[in-house]
Amino acid sequence: xxxxxxxxxxxxxxxxxxxxVVCADSSRVDxxxxxxxxFHLDTLLVxxxxxxxxxxxxxxxxxxxxxxVPSGGQNFVEMVVGLVDQxxxxxxxxxxxxxTPLAITIFVWVFVMNAMDLIPVDxxxxxxxxxxxxxxxxxxxxxxxxxNLTFAMSITVFFIALFMGLKVKGFGHFMHEVxxxxxxxxxxxVNLLFRIVEEIARPISLSLRLFGNxxxxxxxxxxxxLIGLYQLxxxxxxxxxxxxxxxxxxxxxxxxxxxxxxxxxxxx
Length: 268
What we know:
Largest sheet: 2 strands, antiparallel
Radius of gyration: 22 Å
Distance between the termini: 59 Å
Structural class: mainly alpha
């Protein structure tokens, strides 16, 4: 921060990559929460509002769906649902009414959160700062650049897959698989170690893949914004290319979720 109160280049980057943190016990030490619990208020608000808006619109369109000539909105939603449902049919071979709704929720929600990255980096922060009167208020508008959100989603997928495995196979079969696969019961400790490593690696890789790609994309937008008025020749091509990235990352997160559910429901 310079003496005049304007942000330096480093301060500008840090400001855009800093979450609005609320301490659970309202205590801070050197600007950071002193306790264990803290909340990234911007991540919670933006992800929650986006979820309510997009799924509220989908529910409204579903309530007005007709078997005749569909409206543009109904046609688009049916296309997305049909695409996801086909991916589930091709990948998941078990019987569960949960997988398709879960896959649709993940794909749509992750996509709209990723799409916040396409809004110019200074547009929403400036509007918020003018509304609050705080010119240095940190607020990240892309929830998937927050590892707390991506880890929360991947851990949720992990527990759902674990629950599905127990439900489909039963406790006895599930535990036999844990201790006997792949080397047999004689090497149960080795099998258990491999299983633990495999289970831990899934949510970590799932979350870091999404976070890393979106964080890198946001960083590029911020660096382009530092150019000032001459950023358009670079910002527009990168934004067009980034449309592919945000769609691909939502699709990959959804597909890996379906794969994990399929692995949980299948028997060795």
